[in-house]
Amino acid sequence: MNSPILPLTWHLARSSGRRGLQSHLLAAGAAAVGAFVLLVMIAACLGSGTRADRTAWRTPEPAKHGTAVQALATTYVRHEPVTVVSLAQLSGRAATPAPPGLSAFPKQGEVYVSPALADLLHKLPAGQLADRFPKVTSYGTVGAAGLASPDELVAVVGRAPGDSAVSKAADGGASWFDIGQTARAEVSGFSSGKASMFTASDQTMTLLGLVLLAMPVVVLSFAAGRLGAARREQRLAALRLAGATPRQILAMTAVEAAAVGGAGALAGALAYAALLPALAQIPYGVGAWYTGELWVGLGCLAAVVLAVTALITVSAVSMLRQVATSPLGVAQQANPRRTRLIRLVVFAVALGYIWMSTDGGNQLKARQLLALLLLFYGAFWLFGPWVVDRLGRVVGRFARRPATLLAARRLSDDPRGAWRTVSGLVLAGFAAGFFSVSMLGADTSQYRDQVSVVSADTGAARHAATEARTLLHRAGVTATVTVGREDDFDSMLGGAPGVIAHVPGGQERIDTALTALTPLTSGTPPYSRDYTNANDRTATGLISDVTTATLALSFLVATASAGLTAAANVLDRRRVYSLLRLAGTPLKVLDRARTRETVVPLVVLAGGTTAMGVYGSYQLNKAVGATINTSGALQLAACAVLGALAMFAAINGSRPLLRRVTADPAQTAD
Fold first, then answer.
1. Residues 6+ positions from 609 with CB-CB distance below 8 Å
2. Which residues, in sequence order, are CB contacts of 28 under 8 Å at separation 6+?
3. How far apart are CA 641 and CA 434, in angstroms?
4. Tens digits of per-residue pLDDT, 315-333?
């Protein structure tokens, strides 16, 4: 005997009318947004790992029987890093295979450059960049296999084994500034190595962003699952009273929600695939992406579609627990259960465990930190509805206006629904507030307008100073050249012997000086302030990018969730709004109550967690002697204001729907 569930579900969906279709379209739209955002963040996370793997060949790992010498050096132009890989084939050894992105091992005097560096070499005067490399009639091209990004500036230079660029001095180590920017070893291939300093942390930061955005996506999916929940409850409660079994009720709901959620999630996945070329143009870390780096694969694509569909289905089914067990209570619209104090207890226990895990100076791994972050979010997810419930009671007790009183009653009656609307921003607020204003890292402002050249010893430094004055004069650069003291560890040389040139006149003069002083080096190229703060700038840049992207996408998801929830609430509470209109409540009061229902928990909870993050960052900055990142604070404030305005606009977007469903209150209430 065929099951009547599918035909009956299809019949009820068709007979639900225009309002039922609106609910289905809204739910599908929410699923599409959730799947799209999730796929974008997963793509960024996987793509960051691919990027890091593509840079590992540049950092040489010593081979037992090396066939070539490889040296890594980093120079800067227009504040951007230029990675220079020098290679020299050792005589009498086996031929060394070609590095990634090259068709053959470079011969002495050959120079291969990335497409972005080739463009820059043609744009800039030779005295600012090209003269740092051996003169050639034409440059070879480093292919995509050897690059992390199409925007990367990379050069591969063929050298003689006795060239200073591949000598032992090229290993750096004169100061801690060299860490991650210089290396040297005898190699026999390019299959091993560690990721570049500029890409090593990319995946960790995108993984943090993925964790921060996972909860808003879950919230949006649950919001999509409860769209039209009240109307669905009434309809299925009638079927339950007519004799339908709980299993049949749940099966019908699951089928309907899965069909709508699956269609929406599939649409979001198709939008992600269609927008891949545009997404690849968004810069992150070292620059834009290769399109293939952002493709997650069919398996991951299907997994995300199924996950979003499952979340929506679970949300829809969980809303019908009372229908299955007490259909008469639903039909009579009995009051919902209050949140329990156990939520507060669980939250306190979780916070205590997190505090104990992070206290004592223990060095936690990235995975452990992410696990603790997930635990914190899970605990906050349980704790949030309890806070909203109590907040509704407090606001209701002190309310002086009808709109505020109605909003407080709705918060207290449905704290879980109100929490779902704002939870994404509440959970992302702390991280956004903390990272946006953080100002960690060494202060290198004293190195502004300086160029340094490391020498072998003090005698060589004195000779280099004389030659530096000559080279700078020939290049047309006015500079003051001094010999660094070996006991001056606060200088740009970090206590190493060498020359410091003070070059006023801006970045173009600095670039020209770097190029002019290149012949003086015995290993490490001349360097400027960009070299000294590269580690800190890379880390803070990634944090800023991820924080901005997370906050912006959180507002996008929260705006969609708020707008969809507001529209769904209008449809679900149609009878309640009509009764209030019959009782003489103005439409303006109902509309204000809907807005305050979102504003109150948003300001108290999201504003509170963001302020906590800012305060925590301020205390940390104060402890290390740093100040607040003013630009980050302004960026956070602008993003918060724009995001809040977008949320309110999304809520007000359902105002015409409220006006329409209450146009004839007598008939609707009846």
1. 426, 427, 429, 430, 433
2. 224, 260, 261, 263, 264, 267
3. 17
4. 777 766 544 444 444 444 4
